[in-house]
Design brief:
Blueprint (H helix, E strand, L loop, with lengths): L1 E4 L5 H11 L6 H6 L5 E7 L5 E10 L2 E9 L8 H15 L4 E7 L3 H9 L3 E12 L2 E11 L1
Parallel strand pairs: 4-5
Antiparallel strand pairs: 1-2, 2-3, 3-4, 5-7, 6-7
The protein binds coenzyme A.
């Protein structure tokens, strides 16, 4: 496995991974707009060069934000999410970040466990932040001082 910078050419594979792994997947246009200047993003490649995970982040001044992190569904539970999250923190630090932030659906136990394992703490809740049809879920805000 290795980690490399993402490019817009990778978007179709990212959409495919999201559709399978995430019950609330980003659509193509969300990926396209996340290649703007203040963003950085990396992919996890397996030994045959296939993308098996990725993350999207934004750095504004010293504040680092995680926008998306995903591991292909059949590769989950093998430590790759942790590898990607640690890369995000290390890359943010090297670009000058002093604090990291993220939002996560309150029902996403796996992601919350991953974030806590890597040092994030819950700092707040946005009630009914995610609305999809009739279903609503709170957003948990998490932060880490770097
Ligand atoms: C969240 C996600 C990125 C985790 O990736 P992963 O490769 O499965 O995670 P890892 O194997 O690195 O696990 C790291 C830690 O996360 C937690 N975790 C991950 N999957 C878990 C599960 N099924 N049950 C309980 N804890 C879990 C554990 O604390 C684990 O540490 P441990 O194995 O030492 O106990 C992955 O589940 C995913 O892509 N989900 C869909 C997209 C998504 O929800 N992204 C987050 C949006 S905010």
């Amino acid at each position: 496995m290795k980690i490399e910078l993402l490019s817009q050419h990778d978007i179709s594979r990212l959409v495919e991974i999201e559709q399978h792994a995430n019950p609330y997947p980003w659509q193509q246009n969300a990926f396209v707009s996340s290649f703007a200047d203040s963003y950085f993003s990396y992919k996890l490649l397996d030994d045959s060069g296939e993308i098996q995970g990725f993350y999207f982040a934004q750095l504004i001044l010293e504040q680092l934000e995680l926008f998306n992190i995903c591991v292909a569904s059949d590769m989950q539970g093998r430590g790759y999410g942790k590898v990607l999250l640690q890369h995000f923190l290390q890359e943010g630090r090297s670009r000058g970040a002093t604090e990291a932030f993220l939002e996560v659906r309150s029902t996403n136990d796996n992601a919350i466990a991953l974030y806590e394992k890597c040092g994030f703490s819950k700092t707040g809740v946005r009630q009914n932040y995610y609305v999809q049809g009739d279903s609503k879920a709170d957003a948990i805000l998490m932060a880490l001082v770097m």
